[in-house]
Amino acid sequence: MEWKFNGGAPIYTQIVDAVKLAIVSGELPPGARLQGVRELALEAGVNPNTMQRALSELEREGLVYSVRTAGRYVTGDDAAIQEVRRELAGGYAAAFLTAMERLGMKKSEIIKLLEADKEE
Amino acid sequence: MPILECKGLCKSYGSVRALDGVDITIESGRIVGLLGPNGSGKTTLIKLANGLLVPSGGRILVNGLAPGVESKKIISYLPERSCLPEWMNAEQLMGFYGDFYADFDRSAAEGMLARLSIDVKTRLKHLSKGNREKVQLIMVMARKAGLYLLDEPIGGVDPAARDFILNTIISNYNPTASVIISTHLIADVERVLDDVIFINQGKIVLASPADQLREQQGKSVDEVFREVFRC
Fold this sequence. Notes:
By secondary structure, chain A is mainly alpha-helical. In chain A, about 60% of the residues lie in helices and about 5% in strands. In chain A, helix 1 (about 10-25) crosses helix 3, helix 1 packs across helix 4 (about 80-100) and helix 2 crosses helix 3 (about 50-60).
């Protein structure tokens, strides 16, 4: 996985989002085993405590589960994965609309733009 | 028991107050950034923890003990300037560190030196400045210490070496040890920090978990720092 972090948000929430994206996009398929905390922390270049916190959060949300001594796995629950897909899509849509509003685009113009893009 | 505790810690050099009533508690298992501009008291604080300076007031405890022989056994210290004999090579240094410190892990040091392709037979004075700094950091991180005090570990090296240093810190991390990194190069270190302590003119201005600070302010630690210390 590729890891990039930006300013404002806590790093652990950025990790949570990156893993969610990997799960939804299929980069981490259902049932896939995650690397250990230490390896993931090293790969992402972050503090192991931060990685641990992000994984706990993903566990709390039911997207990954841990098997004692065997590691962590991506959930096989398709409904949960679809839920995350909707959540992420909603977030991107909201950010897109905010940017468009700032440009002074009207709803009808935005729709026209999206449809034109689809046809290309 | 906190690994490092300061209560009302003061240090004066003549009429100059380098530290002025510092209260800090650092628990085990944390990577802490001690962040402040030049002359803010970072090095003074670290030297006090090492017993290289004596407080003018207040107290400082390492693992519950005043700095001394016992605290030195558990502290691995990277000074801001090189302190190693320049006529030695890395191999001799490993012997030297192994003699001094019971917790020195020679094979860990050898592994890191090999990864950086540093020739263990070349004397320090014939290594580049960057490689000399890396050798010193390797000696410090190869100890299985309880508290690592790293005074400006990334100041003099290139960005690739910075990544190596930070990765070394992360990969040598163990849950019972704490690391204190003093620096003013915040953007480079903030992703590895659990906690940040801002220090200015000998006083603690802010102490917070790094992610909490980012969440509350909606800014990176680097941005917050630039605001707090705007010149």
